[in-house]
Amino acid sequence: MYEYTTIIELSSIALLLFTAALVTARREEYAWIPALLFLLPDLYVSGNYIMYPALIDSVAAINIITLMLVKGSQYRGMDYALVSFMGLITSYALYVPLSIGDAYFILLLGLFMLVSVPVYFIIQLGGTKENLSAAVKAITALVIATVLYFTGATILFFALINQLGGLALLGYTLLIMGMMLEVGAAPLHLWVPDAFTAGNPYAVSVIASIAKFVPFIVTLKIVYPLLTAMGPTETYIVVWETALLAAFSMLLGNIGAITAKEPARVLAYSTIANMGYIMSALTIFFVEGVSELALAYALIGLLTQLLVNGAGKIGLFSIIGNEKGSRWSYILAYSFIGVPPLLGFWSKLFIVLGLIYAGPLLWWLAVLLVINSVISVPYYVRLSKSLSGTGSSGVGLLVVVLASIVMLVGLAIPIPLAMINSVHALLAYIVPTP
Amino acid sequence: MYESLIPVLVALMTVAPTLLAAPISIYWAMEQDNHKARPLEYLAVIGLGIAALTSTYIALAYPMRTIIYSYPWISVPNIFTAYVSFVVDFLSRYMGLLTAWLAFAIGVYSLEYMADDYRLGWFWFFYNTFAASMLLLVYSNNLLLMFIGWEGLGLSSWALIGNWFRDDDETSFVGKVGDTVLGKPAWTTPSYAAYRAIVTIRFGDMPMLGALAAIGIFGGSLDFNTINWAHLTSVLGVAGTVIVLLAFLLGPFTKSAQFPFNDWLLTAMTGPTSVSALLHSATMVAAGVYIFMRLTIYLVGVNYIGINLVYLSVLYLGLVTAILGAMFATSVNERKVILAGSTMSSLGLMMALTAASKFIPYSVDALGYMLPVGVLVGFSYLIIHALSKATLFLVSGHLIHETHTRFNLGNWRLAEKLPAGFYSTLAAALALGGIPPFAAYWVHSAMDELMTDVGNVVGWGAYALLLLTSFIYVVFLARFMSLNFIKGDDPGEVEGHGGSIMAGTYTAIATAALLVAVPILMMAVPNVILGAGFDPVVFLISLAITVTFIVVTYKPRSASFALVSPVFERRYYIQAFMDVVLAGFGNALTAFAMLFSRGFDWLFNNAIPRLFKATSAAIRGMQDGLIRNYVKAILVVMTIILLIIMMVIMYV
Q1: Which residue in chain B is spatially nearest to A130 when comparing CA positions?
Q2: Which chain B residues are within 8 Å of A144, Cβ to Cβ?
Q3: What are phi and psi of B508, to 5 degrees?
Q4: Residue contact B616–A258, C-beta within 8 A
Q5: Chain A residues with at least one Cβ partner in B under 8 Å
Q6: Cβ separation of A137 and B615 shorter than 8 Å?
Q7: Which of A339, A179, A358 is nearest to A275 (CA)?
């Protein structure tokens, strides 16, 4: 979609210009206006596909509003622009046309980097010593992650062009480890609890939400087309590797959260667990000969779970940042548990359905996912109680309410059903049409 | 025309008592006023009267032949059909007559005996239900229909034994309070006695039901008169036949208190005296014997080693029960428990006599019906026993009311205060003991004759047991009479007023017991009963029995016998066995099951939470805050995973 690339480019440039202008004029506090405004052009797509950019933009928009609450932001003005930019790139990531050329490949890696770098800045917001120590841990991990990812992707690409099965596996392993380190999935999760606890809650909420989309989307777009060139044995090993790592992440995240005391730490482990759920959705794509129905559920599950994770983390971290508590914590926490008819239930349902329809190979993972939901109940309930209260007000309350509205979308049952219908169109951007 | 009338009459006999007992039951559920409930009690007794009149009509008006009414009931096409089937023959018409009139008479007795009871609704409902069930059983020709009546008997028995469920009146207990055996209480309360009764009977009912099914399948029919025993024995073989018959007979064994299933009967004395008189002496416990007699009529002609083996064992079992019951009755000091022991003894005799008919090849003509001789003698004994024992029980009830104790108490002064009671006791003892020229003398002679006839086939042990039992029987009859009316302890102040309905009832029954000798002596052709009494050997034995009776009346207590009596008092330790050994087995099972339960508890309350906690702490323990350690960890993890993948690649 040549036009779409232009739209994104133009929006980015406009965003940069307007933000720079406002910063020069010392009116940084209004920089959220161009940020929100230039987020909107990426919705210029034909009817069927609008669900995805809408989803991304809602997360990015709430993130921008959240950033208003950061006191002592050392990058005031630029922080809004960076988040908006991340939103634009994320919307674009899915629409990159499928191909096997090196241009496609480099573009995707570039997109990965373009989302990773703003995080380096955003994590520093707040400026306290604590925030900066968290930032150091996060940046170190993210840099190593990017390196691993690039190395792995390159090896994978080379191996598959030259039909070297074993090398392809090696490349995939490095790639997936890079991805895991980037998003914070176990066993490469050690930076997450410290970063989430020590960082500024609002800043953490940004990296816990919008920054998690691109690694998964890009991985899908790189690996999936190349999978067809891999033999069945390699595909089988890829599936098992990803599934086992997903299971490990789920379990570690949920069990670790059970005895964690500070809310931010609990949310860190919750993120680790959620990354496990999303990796399970990823696994479905790699199963040999999987049905289109399973793929549809996998994609919608992946996207919705990312949305739920994002909105939930924004809401809960904002409550932590307010230090005043909010009644909406219950909605957010219970959506994480997966209580119907909140959105968190639907996202997990889609992933489970995808795992089941993918065949007996992954049924154990579906069962494990459900068991993990059960394991997560005590700490979410505990969290919702400890974050409950009536003190929030103003923009802080607005953010929490917006996040809760996202969760409550699940109540209007037609909406999840509409999502299932439109995802089939989205699949065209990942699965090559025969 | 007689056939078609039967279902109407049977319905009348079963429905009338139950329906007419409903008003008082419903009333009592709402209000418990003994005075206001009186008319409703009369109504219930009228229901019993209707049943009595109906049975009289059947006994008198029906011709002297076997009349069977049959109607299809449960029908599975081409596979099986069960019939609603009733029979009017010798056994059913006279047993029905006995049951219905006894029920009526004792019902009249209960009007006064239970006048101040706190549970009238319960009592009358189950009393009448009992009568209805018994009558259904008596007239039923179909095993399944009979079984319905059978179960009704068990239910009513449980309900009535436990009538005084509050366990608050020591007079209703059995055994001495405070006595223990092997650490468990040796006294029984009404609620516990009811439980023991129903559990024992149930234990026998279940195999009986199974055997019923087997008979239905292999015998081709569930009606007594159409069961194909030849086919059943040929299909099942010796072992199978023995098993099926014994399983079926377990019902009668438990219900008629044969050893070792007799203990429930002895503790069933916690129920009201009316209940003891009707159920546990005359009718319900006789139901098992009755069914056995009915079965024998048809089995007598089937000569098969399996059946003969079973009958042999029943013969000896009955005689052993008889002697054990008699010995027990001589040792205890509670009025009703003595009588319960004696009932057990008599039931054993009845079973043995019926079993003996299998080994005597001829039948006699009784009023037009051809009956095996053992059945005739056994049935005659049943009638005499029912009337006599009921009398004795009713007198005991009156004595308990007057002396306020269930233990033997009373001397000549009491006899003067309660002349009707003394007369009735003496009459019953004479009628039952075997003293010439009263009824039991002739029947005992016939018994003697029977056992002599089968001696060659079954062994002389049978005759020896019978003789011993006859002697011990009169001992306790004499002891009972003596310790309550002649040589017992002084009862102190006795009210002596009221009780005229009670006295009237038992006097009537006692007189009937004496008079029943006449028809019994006249009915058989050839007259085996009358003929047996003229044997000189038998006459000498009966003289010895009479002498024993008189001696014991004068000297009812014996110091030397008192030394061995504790064994009998403990009822051969059957209750101890049940309460300690069987219960211990149950306890062991429970403890074993608890192991699993505790295991689960430990797993879910202890092991799993601790596991989760420890793992969680370990996971969080990895966060030591030092970034260099995190980077090291990343390197380690990478290396491990890459190594695993390389190994997988090489393997594949």
Answers
A1: B625
A2: 631, 634
A3: -60, -45
A4: yes
A5: 136-137, 140-141, 144, 148, 165-166, 169-170, 173-174, 177, 181, 187-188, 190-191, 193-194, 233, 237, 241, 252, 255-260, 265, 269, 375
A6: no
A7: A179
Give every residue of chain A whose pLDDT is below 50, as ranges.
none
Q: Do B625 and A190 make contact, defined as CB atoms within 8 angstroms? A: no
List the one residue out of B113, B388, B152 whose CA is nearest residue B272.
B113
Question: What six digits make up the tokens of B388?
Answer: 């006599």
pLDDT tens-digit map of A343-402: 999 999 999 999 999 989 999 999 999 999 999 999 999 999 999 888 777 888 888 888
Can you give the pTM of this predicted structure? 0.66
Instruction: Looking at the complex, report in whole angstroms how far the Cα of residue A115 sits from the nearest Cα belonging to chain B.
Output: 22
- Interface A-B, measured as beta-carbon pairs within 8 A, has a size of 69
How do residues B353-376 score in pLDDT, each as one tens digit? 999 998 887 888 888 888 888 899
Question: Helix B120-139 vs helix B2-30: angle between axes, to the nearest 10 degrees?
Answer: 170
Nearest to B555 by CA among B484, B485, B489, B482: B482
H, E, C per residue of chain A? CHHHHHHHHHHHHHHHHHHHHHHHCCCHHHCHHHHHHCCHHHHCCCHHHCHHHHHHHHHHHHHHHHHCCCCCCCCCCHHHHHHHHHHHHHHHHHHCCCCCCHHHHHHHHHHHHHHHHHHHHHCCCCCCHHHHHHHHHHHHHHHHHHHHHHHHHHHHHHHHHCCCHHHHHHHHHHHHHHHHHHHCCCCCCCHHHHHHHHCCHHHHHHHCCHHHHHHHHHHHHHHHHHHCCCCHHHHHHHHHHHHHHHHHHHHHHHHHHHCCCCHHHHHHHHHHHHHHHHHHHHHHHCCCCCCHHHHHHHHHHHHHHHHHHHHHHHHHHHHHHHCCCCCCHHHHHHHHHCCCCCHHHHHHHHHHHHHHHCCHHHHHHHHHHHHHHHHHHHHHHHHHHHCCCCCCCHHHHHHHHHHHHHHHHHHCCHHHHHHHHHHHHHHHHCCCCC
CA distance A402 to A131: 26
CA-to-CA distance for A203 and A199, rounded, in angstroms?
7
- Other Cβ atoms within 10 Å of B330 Cβ, number: 22
- Tell me which chain A residues have a C-beta less than 8 angstroms from the C-beta of B613: 258-259
Cβ A140–B630 below 8 Å, yes or no?
yes
Two structure tokens written together for A131: 């925030």
| Domain coordinates in residue numbering, chain A | 2-427
Size (chain A), residues? 434
High-pLDDT (> 70) share of chain B, %: 100
Contact in structure between A123 and A135 (CB atoms under 8 Å): yes
Cα Rg of chain B, angstroms? 31
ipTM for the complex? 0.86
Task: Give B496's pLDDT tier (boundaries 50, 70, 90).
Answer: low
Nearest CA in chain A to B609: A258
Nearest CA in chain A to B634: A188
Q: Which chain A residues have a beta carbon less than 8 Å from that of B612?
A: 255, 258, 375
pLDDT at position B10: 92
Distance CA B142, CA B70 (A): 9
Say yes or no for a CB contact (<8 Å) between B649 and A170: yes
Say how far apart CA A245 and CA A179 lie, in whole Å: 12
The β-bridge relationship of strands B363-366 and B184-185 is: unpaired
DSSP line for B459-517? -THHHHHHHHHHHHHHHHHHHHHIIIIIBS---------S-HHHHHHHHHHHHHHHHTH
CB contact under 8 A, B620 and A258: no
- A95: CB partners within 8 A, 6+ apart: A1, A4, A45, A49, A429
